[in-house]
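Lab notebook, bench 4. Still working through the backlog of constructs that have no structural model yet. Next entry is a single chain of 229 residues. Request: give me the structure tokens for it.
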Amino acid sequence: MITYNEVLEEISALSEPDFADFQKRIIGDKVLKIFGVRTPALRKLAKKYADESECFSSFPNEYYEVVFLKLTLAARMPYYSFLEVCDDCVCLLTDWALCDCFAPACIEKNREEFIPYIKKYAACTAGHDGGMFVRRFAFTTLLHFYVDEDHLPLIFECVSGCRNDGYYVVMGAAWLLAEVLIKHYERGCEFLNSSMCDINIRNKAISKACDSFRVSDERKRELRRLRRS
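Model written out:
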């Protein structure tokens, strides 16, 4: 059984001071301390610790890298085992990097059953930064697993509840809508033109879609005409 100090020693051996400084600039270190270990190296560690998820669950949430490993191990669990720790995992999402890397594979084959969790997280009103990243997780999960014709109503329902909910929530919703525009252009435009879509989300979604090589020049011109001030 691995100990917390042994894990910290392994992480420290992989750390890069310059990369740690970079992460602190783009992620921040107000909540978690950062060693500065690159994601591929952390994923290799997660493979090494594949059978240690229960042990990791007892470790303090002090370092970004430890929390990353906790989330990665949980994301590899079978679906019903994952549900037992899902709420605890979502509460660990204290920045956009952890949130965007957390995409539990087991959700893909259990999408319908997981919808109540998505709706719960999308409606989270916690009055702290954690609430913001809980909501962003709802949008990134929809992005990873639900951008198909059948689930567009769910996506639009969740996005329509997003109004001035903080930068990272708005950008998560915009990223999701940009993917909708790429894959379901007409339906996406209908939603952008509706009163259900917040103007800030609309404009940022258009910008993201226009940055994509998967959108034709003609459609980019159409989308830019939809921008509102």
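Notes after review: The chain has two domains: 1-76, 104-229. Residues 1-76 form one domain. Flag for follow-up if needed.
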